[in-house]
Amino acid sequence: MAQGSRGEARPAPHGTGRARRVAIPLVTTLAILMAWQLLVVCGIVPNFMLPTPTQVMAALVGDFPLLVSNSATTLAESALGLVIGCAVGFAFAVLMDRFEGFRLAFSPLITISQTIPTIAVAPILILWLGYGLAPKVVLVVLTTFFPITVSLVSGFQSVDPDMVDLMRTMNATRWQIFWQVKMPAAAEQFFSGLRISATYAIVGAVISEWLGGFSGLGVYMTRVRKSFSYDRMFAVIIIISALSLALMGLVDALQRLCMPWKRAEGEK
Amino acid sequence: MLRRKRDAPGADGGEEGTVPSPATSSAGSGDPLAPSLEARSLTLAWEGGPDVVRDVSLHVGSGEVVCLVGRSGCGKTTILHALSGLTRPVSGMVLLHGRDVTGTPGHVSYMLQKDLLIPSKRIIDNVCLPLVVGGMSRAEARAKAEPLMERFGLAGTEERWPGELSGGMRQRAAFMRTYLMGNDVVLLDEPFSALDALTRTDMRGWYCRMSAELSLATLAITHDVDEAVSMASRIYVLRGNPSGGVPSTIAREVVVDRPKGASAPEEFALTPAFLEAKREVLSLLGG
Protein backbone atom coordinates (compact mmCIF):
# COMPACT_ATOMS: atom_id res chain seq x y z
CA MET A 1 0.00 0.00 0.00
CA ALA A 2 2.66 2.45 1.07
CA GLN A 3 4.83 1.37 -1.83
CA GLY A 4 1.94 1.73 -4.26
CA SER A 5 1.18 5.26 -3.20
CA ARG A 6 4.85 6.15 -3.43
CA GLY A 7 4.92 4.75 -6.96
CA GLU A 8 1.90 6.79 -7.95
CA ALA A 9 3.32 9.90 -6.37
CA ARG A 10 6.43 9.66 -8.58
CA PRO A 11 5.18 11.44 -11.70
CA ALA A 12 3.80 14.35 -9.69
CA PRO A 13 7.15 16.03 -8.83
CA HIS A 14 7.98 16.01 -12.54
CA GLY A 15 4.73 17.81 -13.34
CA THR A 16 5.15 20.40 -10.62
CA GLY A 17 8.81 20.67 -11.65
CA ARG A 18 7.79 21.91 -15.07
CA ALA A 19 5.21 24.27 -13.58
CA ARG A 20 7.83 25.57 -11.17
CA ARG A 21 10.26 26.17 -13.97
CA VAL A 22 7.71 28.45 -15.61
CA ALA A 23 6.11 29.98 -12.52
CA ILE A 24 9.20 30.97 -10.52
CA PRO A 25 10.92 33.10 -13.19
CA LEU A 26 7.55 34.58 -14.21
CA VAL A 27 6.72 35.68 -10.67
CA THR A 28 10.23 37.06 -10.20
CA THR A 29 9.99 39.11 -13.38
CA LEU A 30 6.55 40.47 -12.47
CA ALA A 31 7.81 41.38 -9.00
CA ILE A 32 10.76 43.30 -10.46
CA LEU A 33 8.47 45.13 -12.92
CA MET A 34 6.11 46.09 -10.08
CA ALA A 35 8.99 47.30 -7.92
CA TRP A 36 10.27 49.33 -10.89
CA GLN A 37 6.80 50.84 -11.41
CA LEU A 38 6.50 51.73 -7.70
CA LEU A 39 10.01 53.20 -7.61
CA VAL A 40 9.08 55.71 -10.29
CA VAL A 41 5.46 56.32 -9.29
CA CYS A 42 6.51 57.08 -5.69
CA GLY A 43 9.08 59.53 -7.00
CA ILE A 44 12.16 57.76 -5.62
CA VAL A 45 13.61 57.84 -9.13
CA PRO A 46 12.49 60.85 -11.22
CA ASN A 47 10.31 59.93 -14.19
CA PHE A 48 12.36 61.97 -16.69
CA MET A 49 15.28 59.61 -16.02
CA LEU A 50 13.41 56.32 -15.94
CA PRO A 51 10.12 55.54 -17.68
CA THR A 52 7.70 53.17 -15.94
CA PRO A 53 7.00 49.73 -17.43
CA THR A 54 3.50 50.90 -18.38
CA GLN A 55 4.94 53.90 -20.25
CA VAL A 56 7.33 51.55 -22.08
CA MET A 57 4.42 49.32 -23.06
CA ALA A 58 2.49 52.35 -24.30
CA ALA A 59 5.49 53.46 -26.38
CA LEU A 60 5.83 49.95 -27.76
CA VAL A 61 2.20 49.90 -28.86
CA GLY A 62 2.17 53.50 -30.14
CA ASP A 63 5.37 53.15 -32.16
CA PHE A 64 4.64 49.64 -33.34
CA PRO A 65 4.44 50.31 -37.11
CA LEU A 66 7.71 52.26 -36.98
CA LEU A 67 9.39 49.55 -34.92
CA VAL A 68 8.24 46.89 -37.37
CA SER A 69 9.59 48.69 -40.43
CA ASN A 70 12.93 49.36 -38.71
CA SER A 71 13.08 45.76 -37.48
CA ALA A 72 12.74 44.58 -41.07
CA THR A 73 15.94 46.43 -42.02
CA THR A 74 17.85 45.09 -39.01
CA LEU A 75 16.59 41.57 -39.58
CA ALA A 76 17.57 41.64 -43.25
CA GLU A 77 21.10 42.79 -42.35
CA SER A 78 21.39 40.15 -39.60
CA ALA A 79 20.06 37.32 -41.71
CA LEU A 80 22.22 38.14 -44.72
CA GLY A 81 25.28 38.56 -42.48
CA LEU A 82 24.55 35.34 -40.63
CA VAL A 83 24.19 33.32 -43.83
CA ILE A 84 27.42 34.70 -45.26
CA GLY A 85 29.08 34.28 -41.85
CA CYS A 86 28.04 30.62 -41.81
CA ALA A 87 29.47 30.07 -45.28
CA VAL A 88 32.76 31.79 -44.38
CA GLY A 89 32.94 29.93 -41.05
CA PHE A 90 32.26 26.63 -42.77
CA ALA A 91 34.93 27.24 -45.39
CA PHE A 92 37.51 28.17 -42.74
CA ALA A 93 36.61 25.13 -40.62
CA VAL A 94 36.89 22.69 -43.54
CA LEU A 95 40.25 24.13 -44.62
CA MET A 96 41.54 24.12 -41.03
CA ASP A 97 40.46 20.51 -40.59
CA ARG A 98 41.91 19.38 -43.90
CA PHE A 99 45.24 21.26 -43.93
CA GLU A 100 47.24 21.40 -40.73
CA GLY A 101 49.38 24.20 -42.19
CA PHE A 102 46.30 26.30 -42.79
CA ARG A 103 45.13 25.70 -39.22
CA LEU A 104 48.52 26.65 -37.76
CA ALA A 105 48.71 29.74 -39.97
CA PHE A 106 45.23 31.10 -39.34
CA SER A 107 43.99 30.00 -35.93
CA PRO A 108 45.93 32.68 -33.99
CA LEU A 109 44.85 35.34 -36.49
CA ILE A 110 41.22 34.30 -36.23
CA THR A 111 41.40 34.40 -32.44
CA ILE A 112 43.07 37.83 -32.47
CA SER A 113 40.42 39.15 -34.86
CA GLN A 114 37.83 38.41 -32.17
CA THR A 115 39.60 40.61 -29.61
CA ILE A 116 39.05 43.72 -31.76
CA PRO A 117 35.99 45.53 -30.37
CA THR A 118 33.06 45.62 -32.77
CA ILE A 119 32.38 49.24 -31.87
CA ALA A 120 35.87 50.19 -33.08
CA VAL A 121 35.56 48.40 -36.40
CA ALA A 122 32.09 49.73 -37.30
CA PRO A 123 33.12 53.37 -38.04
CA ILE A 124 36.01 52.18 -40.21
CA LEU A 125 33.64 49.97 -42.20
CA ILE A 126 31.27 52.92 -42.67
CA LEU A 127 34.20 55.02 -43.86
CA TRP A 128 35.07 52.37 -46.42
CA LEU A 129 31.68 51.09 -47.46
CA GLY A 130 29.30 54.01 -46.93
CA TYR A 131 26.01 54.24 -45.05
CA GLY A 132 24.12 51.50 -46.85
CA LEU A 133 23.64 47.79 -46.25
CA ALA A 134 27.23 46.71 -46.95
CA PRO A 135 29.05 47.83 -43.76
CA LYS A 136 26.31 46.34 -41.56
CA VAL A 137 26.41 42.99 -43.30
CA VAL A 138 30.21 42.90 -43.21
CA LEU A 139 30.20 43.63 -39.47
CA VAL A 140 27.68 40.85 -38.86
CA VAL A 141 29.82 38.46 -40.92
CA LEU A 142 32.90 39.40 -38.88
CA THR A 143 31.13 38.73 -35.57
CA THR A 144 29.28 35.57 -36.58
CA PHE A 145 31.83 33.47 -38.48
CA PHE A 146 34.03 32.92 -35.44
CA PRO A 147 31.66 30.82 -33.27
CA ILE A 148 30.76 28.78 -36.37
CA THR A 149 34.41 28.11 -37.25
CA VAL A 150 35.40 27.18 -33.70
CA SER A 151 32.43 24.86 -33.14
CA LEU A 152 32.82 23.13 -36.50
CA VAL A 153 36.56 22.59 -36.11
CA SER A 154 36.10 20.99 -32.70
CA GLY A 155 33.13 19.03 -34.07
CA PHE A 156 35.21 17.64 -36.94
CA GLN A 157 37.93 16.69 -34.49
CA SER A 158 35.48 14.98 -32.14
CA VAL A 159 35.04 12.13 -34.60
CA ASP A 160 36.17 8.73 -33.28
CA PRO A 161 39.54 7.85 -34.89
CA ASP A 162 38.39 4.21 -34.96
CA MET A 163 35.49 5.29 -37.16
CA VAL A 164 37.96 6.86 -39.57
CA ASP A 165 40.01 3.63 -39.55
CA LEU A 166 36.86 1.64 -40.27
CA MET A 167 36.09 3.89 -43.23
CA ARG A 168 39.64 3.40 -44.48
CA THR A 169 39.22 -0.39 -44.39
CA MET A 170 36.27 0.20 -46.74
CA ASN A 171 38.62 2.07 -49.08
CA ALA A 172 36.71 5.29 -48.44
CA THR A 173 38.04 8.47 -50.00
CA ARG A 174 38.85 11.49 -47.88
CA TRP A 175 35.73 13.18 -49.19
CA GLN A 176 33.56 10.18 -48.24
CA ILE A 177 35.04 10.13 -44.73
CA PHE A 178 34.29 13.85 -44.44
CA TRP A 179 30.76 13.63 -45.75
CA GLN A 180 29.62 10.36 -44.14
CA VAL A 181 31.35 10.61 -40.77
CA LYS A 182 32.76 14.03 -39.94
CA MET A 183 29.80 16.16 -40.99
CA PRO A 184 27.21 14.31 -38.87
CA ALA A 185 29.67 14.16 -35.96
CA ALA A 186 29.97 17.96 -36.05
CA ALA A 187 26.23 18.67 -36.32
CA GLU A 188 25.54 19.13 -32.64
CA GLN A 189 28.47 21.48 -32.03
CA PHE A 190 27.66 23.40 -35.20
CA PHE A 191 24.21 24.22 -33.88
CA SER A 192 25.55 25.42 -30.52
CA GLY A 193 27.87 27.71 -32.47
CA LEU A 194 25.02 28.87 -34.68
CA ARG A 195 22.89 29.71 -31.62
CA ILE A 196 25.63 32.03 -30.33
CA SER A 197 26.13 33.55 -33.77
CA ALA A 198 22.40 34.24 -34.11
CA THR A 199 22.43 36.51 -31.04
CA TYR A 200 25.65 38.20 -32.19
CA ALA A 201 24.02 38.87 -35.56
CA ILE A 202 21.23 41.12 -34.22
CA VAL A 203 23.52 42.98 -31.80
CA GLY A 204 26.17 43.41 -34.51
CA ALA A 205 23.66 44.92 -36.93
CA VAL A 206 22.28 47.32 -34.27
CA ILE A 207 25.74 48.55 -33.27
CA SER A 208 26.61 49.14 -36.89
CA GLU A 209 23.39 51.13 -37.38
CA TRP A 210 24.14 53.35 -34.38
CA LEU A 211 27.12 54.79 -36.20
CA GLY A 212 25.27 55.70 -39.35
CA GLY A 213 22.49 54.58 -41.62
CA PHE A 214 19.05 55.37 -43.00
CA SER A 215 16.83 52.87 -41.20
CA GLY A 216 17.01 50.04 -38.71
CA LEU A 217 16.56 49.62 -34.98
CA GLY A 218 19.99 51.13 -34.26
CA VAL A 219 19.17 54.24 -36.29
CA TYR A 220 15.80 54.53 -34.58
CA MET A 221 17.51 54.12 -31.21
CA THR A 222 19.92 57.01 -31.77
CA ARG A 223 17.03 59.14 -32.97
CA VAL A 224 14.86 58.58 -29.86
CA ARG A 225 17.91 59.01 -27.62
CA LYS A 226 18.53 62.45 -29.08
CA SER A 227 14.92 63.39 -28.33
CA PHE A 228 15.27 62.04 -24.77
CA SER A 229 12.26 59.69 -25.17
CA TYR A 230 13.54 56.99 -22.88
CA ASP A 231 10.24 55.09 -22.98
CA ARG A 232 10.73 54.46 -26.72
CA MET A 233 14.37 53.60 -26.08
CA PHE A 234 13.28 50.82 -23.73
CA ALA A 235 10.68 49.70 -26.27
CA VAL A 236 13.47 49.22 -28.83
CA ILE A 237 15.46 47.21 -26.31
CA ILE A 238 12.47 44.92 -25.83
CA ILE A 239 12.17 44.47 -29.60
CA ILE A 240 15.88 43.64 -29.93
CA SER A 241 15.60 41.02 -27.17
CA ALA A 242 12.49 39.55 -28.79
CA LEU A 243 14.21 39.32 -32.19
CA SER A 244 17.26 37.62 -30.68
CA LEU A 245 15.06 35.13 -28.85
CA ALA A 246 13.06 34.45 -32.01
CA LEU A 247 16.24 33.82 -33.99
CA MET A 248 17.51 31.45 -31.31
CA GLY A 249 14.17 29.65 -31.39
CA LEU A 250 14.49 29.35 -35.15
CA VAL A 251 17.95 27.80 -34.74
CA ASP A 252 16.55 25.32 -32.19
CA ALA A 253 13.73 24.38 -34.58
CA LEU A 254 16.22 23.95 -37.41
CA GLN A 255 18.35 21.71 -35.19
CA ARG A 256 15.39 19.51 -34.30
CA LEU A 257 14.59 19.24 -38.00
CA CYS A 258 18.16 18.41 -39.01
CA MET A 259 18.91 15.99 -36.16
CA PRO A 260 15.85 13.72 -35.88
CA TRP A 261 17.91 10.94 -34.25
CA LYS A 262 18.41 13.08 -31.13
CA ARG A 263 14.67 13.21 -30.57
CA ALA A 264 14.36 9.44 -31.05
CA GLU A 265 17.13 8.88 -28.50
CA GLY A 266 15.42 11.22 -26.09
CA GLU A 267 12.17 9.25 -26.30
CA LYS A 268 13.87 5.91 -25.74
CA MET B 1 25.76 -14.74 -54.79
CA LEU B 2 25.79 -12.45 -51.86
CA ARG B 3 29.47 -11.88 -52.08
CA ARG B 4 30.71 -8.80 -53.77
CA LYS B 5 34.34 -8.97 -54.70
CA ARG B 6 36.23 -5.82 -55.31
CA ASP B 7 38.63 -5.57 -58.18
CA ALA B 8 41.22 -4.24 -55.81
CA PRO B 9 44.40 -3.59 -57.81
CA GLY B 10 44.34 -0.45 -59.84
CA ALA B 11 40.93 0.63 -58.53
CA ASP B 12 42.34 3.21 -56.16
CA GLY B 13 45.56 4.27 -57.78
CA GLY B 14 49.09 3.02 -57.56
CA GLU B 15 49.25 2.05 -53.88
CA GLU B 16 49.30 -1.61 -54.85
CA GLY B 17 52.33 -1.17 -57.03
CA THR B 18 54.48 0.12 -54.18
CA VAL B 19 54.46 -3.23 -52.36
CA PRO B 20 57.99 -4.56 -52.82
CA SER B 21 57.11 -8.18 -53.28
CA PRO B 22 57.43 -10.84 -55.92
CA ALA B 23 53.88 -11.99 -55.29
CA THR B 24 52.42 -8.79 -56.76
CA SER B 25 53.27 -9.92 -60.23
CA SER B 26 51.27 -13.11 -59.81
CA ALA B 27 48.27 -11.15 -58.48
CA GLY B 28 45.12 -12.34 -60.12
CA SER B 29 42.23 -14.44 -58.96
CA GLY B 30 44.44 -15.96 -56.23
CA ASP B 31 45.53 -19.48 -55.41
CA PRO B 32 42.48 -21.64 -54.58
CA LEU B 33 44.58 -23.93 -52.35
CA ALA B 34 46.12 -21.09 -50.34
CA PRO B 35 44.54 -20.18 -46.99
CA SER B 36 42.05 -17.32 -47.12
CA LEU B 37 44.30 -15.19 -44.95
CA GLU B 38 47.93 -15.74 -44.18
CA ALA B 39 50.52 -13.69 -42.33
CA ARG B 40 54.17 -14.54 -42.91
CA SER B 41 56.76 -13.50 -40.29
CA LEU B 42 55.11 -10.19 -39.46
CA THR B 43 57.22 -7.82 -37.42
CA LEU B 44 55.36 -4.69 -36.36
CA ALA B 45 56.38 -1.52 -34.59
CA TRP B 46 54.84 1.80 -33.67
CA GLU B 47 56.21 4.55 -35.84
CA GLY B 48 59.88 4.96 -34.96
CA GLY B 49 59.49 2.93 -31.78
CA PRO B 50 60.74 -0.52 -30.77
CA ASP B 51 59.12 -3.68 -32.11
CA VAL B 52 55.71 -4.51 -30.65
CA VAL B 53 55.27 -7.87 -32.33
CA ARG B 54 58.04 -10.03 -33.81
CA ASP B 55 57.94 -12.79 -36.39
CA VAL B 56 54.22 -13.61 -36.21
CA SER B 57 52.94 -16.16 -38.73
CA LEU B 58 49.36 -17.35 -38.86
CA HIS B 59 46.75 -18.56 -41.29
CA VAL B 60 42.96 -18.80 -41.42
CA GLY B 61 41.02 -21.06 -43.77
CA SER B 62 37.61 -20.64 -45.34
CA GLY B 63 34.71 -21.37 -42.95
CA GLU B 64 37.07 -21.34 -40.00
CA VAL B 65 36.99 -19.27 -36.81
CA VAL B 66 40.48 -18.73 -35.40
CA CYS B 67 41.26 -16.75 -32.25
CA LEU B 68 44.32 -14.81 -31.29
CA VAL B 69 44.57 -14.65 -27.50
CA GLY B 70 46.83 -12.51 -25.40
CA ARG B 71 46.95 -10.21 -22.42
CA SER B 72 45.97 -6.55 -22.75
CA GLY B 73 48.65 -4.48 -24.40
CA CYS B 74 50.51 -7.37 -26.01
CA GLY B 75 49.85 -6.10 -29.52
CA LYS B 76 46.72 -7.97 -30.65
CA THR B 77 45.06 -4.90 -32.17
CA THR B 78 48.37 -3.91 -33.78
CA ILE B 79 48.35 -7.25 -35.59
CA LEU B 80 44.77 -6.75 -36.81
CA HIS B 81 45.63 -3.26 -38.04
CA ALA B 82 48.47 -4.70 -40.08
CA LEU B 83 46.33 -7.56 -41.42
CA SER B 84 43.63 -5.07 -42.47
CA GLY B 85 46.22 -3.03 -44.33
CA LEU B 86 45.77 0.10 -42.21
CA THR B 87 49.42 -0.07 -41.20
CA ARG B 88 52.50 -1.42 -42.92
CA PRO B 89 54.68 -4.03 -41.19
CA VAL B 90 58.40 -3.49 -40.57
CA SER B 91 58.90 -6.82 -42.29
CA GLY B 92 56.80 -9.76 -43.34
CA MET B 93 53.84 -10.20 -45.65
CA VAL B 94 50.06 -10.42 -45.55
CA LEU B 95 48.58 -12.75 -48.15
CA LEU B 96 44.95 -13.02 -49.17
CA HIS B 97 44.22 -16.20 -51.10
CA GLY B 98 47.94 -16.28 -51.84
CA ARG B 99 48.02 -12.72 -53.14
CA ASP B 100 50.19 -10.06 -51.48
CA VAL B 101 48.04 -7.30 -49.95
CA THR B 102 50.57 -6.02 -47.41
CA GLY B 103 49.78 -2.45 -46.35
CA THR B 104 46.78 -1.94 -48.64
CA PRO B 105 43.39 -1.49 -46.96
CA GLY B 106 40.10 -2.57 -48.48
CA HIS B 107 40.62 -6.31 -48.87
CA VAL B 108 39.34 -7.67 -45.56
CA SER B 109 36.28 -6.85 -43.48
CA TYR B 110 37.24 -5.41 -40.13
CA MET B 111 34.89 -5.18 -37.18
CA LEU B 112 36.05 -3.24 -34.18
CA GLN B 113 35.32 -3.58 -30.50
CA LYS B 114 32.88 -0.68 -30.55
CA ASP B 115 29.94 -1.08 -32.90
CA LEU B 116 30.79 2.32 -34.44
CA LEU B 117 27.32 2.82 -35.86
CA ILE B 118 26.81 6.39 -37.02
CA PRO B 119 24.11 7.88 -34.75
CA SER B 120 22.78 10.13 -37.51
CA LYS B 121 22.04 7.31 -39.95
CA ARG B 122 19.11 4.91 -39.76
CA ILE B 123 20.05 1.23 -39.27
CA ILE B 124 19.52 0.40 -42.94
CA ASP B 125 21.78 3.28 -43.99
CA ASN B 126 24.39 2.25 -41.43
CA VAL B 127 24.59 -1.29 -42.76
CA CYS B 128 24.63 0.07 -46.33
CA LEU B 129 27.64 2.27 -45.62
CA PRO B 130 30.23 -0.01 -47.30
CA LEU B 131 28.03 -0.28 -50.41
CA VAL B 132 27.60 3.49 -50.62
CA VAL B 133 31.33 3.99 -50.05
CA GLY B 134 31.90 1.45 -52.83
CA GLY B 135 30.00 3.70 -55.22
CA MET B 136 26.37 2.51 -55.07
CA SER B 137 23.51 4.95 -54.82
CA ARG B 138 21.60 4.99 -51.54
CA ALA B 139 18.53 3.43 -53.19
CA GLU B 140 20.53 0.63 -54.84
CA ALA B 141 22.33 -0.13 -51.60
CA ARG B 142 19.06 -0.23 -49.65
CA ALA B 143 17.51 -2.56 -52.22
CA LYS B 144 20.46 -4.90 -51.88
CA ALA B 145 20.57 -4.84 -48.07
CA GLU B 146 16.87 -5.01 -47.27
CA PRO B 147 16.37 -8.73 -48.15
CA LEU B 148 19.31 -9.60 -45.87
CA MET B 149 18.00 -7.83 -42.79
CA GLU B 150 15.97 -10.82 -41.64
CA ARG B 151 18.88 -13.21 -41.95
CA PHE B 152 20.92 -10.99 -39.64
CA GLY B 153 18.09 -10.78 -37.12
CA LEU B 154 17.45 -7.15 -37.94
CA ALA B 155 14.02 -7.34 -39.60
CA GLY B 156 11.86 -4.37 -38.65
CA THR B 157 14.73 -2.19 -37.50
CA GLU B 158 15.45 -0.67 -40.94
CA GLU B 159 14.13 2.79 -40.14
CA ARG B 160 15.24 2.92 -36.49
CA TRP B 161 18.13 5.02 -35.23
CA PRO B 162 21.13 3.20 -33.68
CA GLY B 163 20.43 4.95 -30.35
CA GLU B 164 17.10 3.14 -30.14
CA LEU B 165 18.54 -0.40 -30.33
CA SER B 166 19.95 -2.71 -27.65
CA GLY B 167 23.65 -3.55 -27.53
CA GLY B 168 23.11 -6.99 -29.10
CA MET B 169 21.07 -5.57 -31.98
CA ARG B 170 23.64 -2.84 -32.59
CA GLN B 171 26.34 -5.51 -32.74
CA ARG B 172 24.28 -7.47 -35.28
CA ALA B 173 23.96 -4.35 -37.38
CA ALA B 174 27.70 -3.77 -37.11
CA PHE B 175 28.28 -7.35 -38.22
CA MET B 176 25.92 -7.00 -41.16
CA ARG B 177 27.77 -3.84 -42.17
CA THR B 178 31.04 -5.80 -41.91
CA TYR B 179 29.54 -8.53 -44.08
CA LEU B 180 28.42 -6.04 -46.72
CA MET B 181 32.01 -4.93 -47.08
CA GLY B 182 31.93 -7.98 -49.35
CA ASN B 183 35.12 -9.75 -48.33
CA ASP B 184 35.27 -13.39 -47.28
CA VAL B 185 37.90 -12.67 -44.63
CA VAL B 186 36.65 -11.08 -41.43
CA LEU B 187 38.76 -9.62 -38.62
CA LEU B 188 37.04 -9.19 -35.27
CA ASP B 189 38.51 -7.04 -32.49
CA GLU B 190 36.90 -8.21 -29.25
CA PRO B 191 33.51 -7.86 -30.89
CA PHE B 192 31.37 -9.01 -27.98
CA SER B 193 33.24 -7.50 -25.04
CA ALA B 194 30.89 -4.52 -24.72
CA LEU B 195 27.81 -6.73 -24.30
CA ASP B 196 26.30 -8.19 -21.12
CA ALA B 197 27.19 -11.79 -20.33
CA LEU B 198 23.98 -13.43 -21.60
CA THR B 199 23.85 -11.42 -24.83
CA ARG B 200 27.52 -12.19 -25.36
CA THR B 201 26.87 -15.94 -25.16
CA ASP B 202 23.96 -15.62 -27.60
CA MET B 203 26.02 -13.55 -30.03
CA ARG B 204 28.94 -16.03 -30.01
CA GLY B 205 26.60 -18.84 -31.03
CA TRP B 206 24.90 -16.65 -33.58
CA TYR B 207 28.21 -15.56 -35.06
CA CYS B 208 29.53 -19.13 -35.38
CA ARG B 209 26.36 -20.17 -37.19
CA MET B 210 26.45 -17.18 -39.53
CA SER B 211 30.13 -17.51 -40.39
CA ALA B 212 29.73 -21.23 -41.19
CA GLU B 213 26.67 -20.45 -43.29
CA LEU B 214 28.45 -17.72 -45.23
CA SER B 215 31.77 -19.66 -45.25
CA LEU B 216 33.74 -16.73 -43.90
CA ALA B 217 37.29 -16.97 -42.68
CA THR B 218 37.32 -15.27 -39.28
CA LEU B 219 40.22 -14.16 -37.16
CA ALA B 220 39.04 -12.85 -33.80
CA ILE B 221 41.24 -11.34 -31.12
CA THR B 222 40.23 -11.53 -27.49
CA HIS B 223 41.66 -11.62 -23.98
CA ASP B 224 38.73 -13.78 -22.86
CA VAL B 225 40.01 -17.37 -22.89
CA ASP B 226 36.50 -18.80 -22.53
CA GLU B 227 35.38 -16.90 -25.60
CA ALA B 228 38.35 -18.08 -27.62
CA VAL B 229 38.03 -21.74 -26.68
CA SER B 230 34.26 -21.83 -27.14
CA MET B 231 34.33 -20.30 -30.63
CA ALA B 232 37.62 -21.20 -32.29
CA SER B 233 38.89 -24.31 -34.00
CA ARG B 234 42.46 -23.11 -33.46
CA ILE B 235 43.91 -20.60 -31.03
CA TYR B 236 47.13 -18.63 -31.40
CA VAL B 237 48.52 -17.66 -28.02
CA LEU B 238 50.40 -14.38 -28.18
CA ARG B 239 52.88 -13.69 -25.39
CA GLY B 240 55.25 -10.85 -24.63
CA ASN B 241 55.51 -7.45 -22.99
CA PRO B 242 56.02 -4.77 -25.65
CA SER B 243 55.86 -1.86 -23.19
CA GLY B 244 58.60 -3.59 -21.13
CA GLY B 245 60.81 -4.00 -24.18
CA VAL B 246 59.93 -7.63 -24.97
CA PRO B 247 58.16 -7.90 -28.35
CA SER B 248 55.29 -10.38 -28.44
CA THR B 249 55.57 -13.63 -30.32
CA ILE B 250 53.19 -16.52 -30.84
CA ALA B 251 53.90 -18.93 -27.97
CA ARG B 252 51.93 -21.81 -29.44
CA GLU B 253 49.09 -22.73 -31.74
CA VAL B 254 46.48 -24.67 -29.74
CA VAL B 255 44.17 -26.89 -31.77
CA VAL B 256 40.78 -27.17 -30.09
CA ASP B 257 39.41 -30.68 -30.24
CA ARG B 258 35.86 -29.82 -31.24
CA PRO B 259 33.51 -32.72 -31.82
CA LYS B 260 31.78 -32.54 -35.19
CA GLY B 261 28.15 -31.49 -35.00
CA ALA B 262 28.15 -29.95 -31.52
CA SER B 263 29.41 -26.67 -32.88
CA ALA B 264 27.30 -24.37 -30.70
CA PRO B 265 29.79 -22.60 -28.43
CA GLU B 266 27.48 -22.68 -25.39
CA GLU B 267 27.20 -26.48 -25.65
CA PHE B 268 30.85 -27.09 -26.37
CA ALA B 269 31.72 -25.03 -23.29
CA LEU B 270 30.27 -27.80 -21.11
CA THR B 271 32.53 -30.59 -22.42
CA PRO B 272 35.85 -31.95 -21.05
CA ALA B 273 37.58 -31.07 -24.36
CA PHE B 274 36.72 -27.42 -23.68
CA LEU B 275 38.31 -27.54 -20.23
CA GLU B 276 41.40 -29.22 -21.54
CA ALA B 277 41.96 -26.60 -24.22
CA LYS B 278 41.20 -23.83 -21.73
CA ARG B 279 43.76 -25.22 -19.27
CA GLU B 280 46.40 -25.32 -22.00
CA VAL B 281 45.76 -21.74 -23.13
CA LEU B 282 45.70 -20.45 -19.55
CA SER B 283 48.99 -22.14 -18.70
CA LEU B 284 50.58 -20.59 -21.79
CA LEU B 285 49.29 -17.15 -20.86
CA GLY B 286 50.25 -17.50 -17.21
CA GLY B 287 53.81 -18.73 -17.69
Automatic annotation (TrEMBL), chain A:
Main subcellular location of this protein, as a coarse class = membrane
Q: Which GO terms describe its biological process?
A: transmembrane transport
Q: Which topology term describes how it sits in the membrane?
A: Multi-pass membrane protein
Q: Write out the annotated subcellular location.
A: Cell membrane
What are the GO cellular component annotations? plasma membrane
Q: Where is the ABC transmembrane type-1 domain?
A: 71-251
Keywords for the protein's UniProt record, in alphabetical order: Cell membrane, Membrane, Transmembrane, Transmembrane helix, Transport
Which parts of the chain span the membrane according to its record? 21-46, 75-96, 108-131, 137-159, 198-221, 233-254
| CDD domains found in the cross-reference section | TM_PBP2
| UniProt keyword Membrane, yes or no | yes
- Which family, according to the similarity comment? Belongs to the binding-protein-dependent transport system permease family.
Q: What is this protein called?
A: ABC transporter permease
TrEMBL record, chain B:
**A Pfam family name for this chain?**
ABC_tran
Keywords from UniProt, A to Z, are: ATP-binding, Nucleotide-binding, Transport
The question of whether Nucleus is a record keyword is answered with: no
* ABC transporter domain location: 37-268
Q: Which PROSITE patterns match?
A: ABC_TRANSPORTER_2
- Annotated region (Disordered), positions in chain: 1-34
* A GO term for molecular function: ATP binding
- Protein name, entry field: ATP-binding cassette domain-containing protein
Origin organism is: Olsenella porci
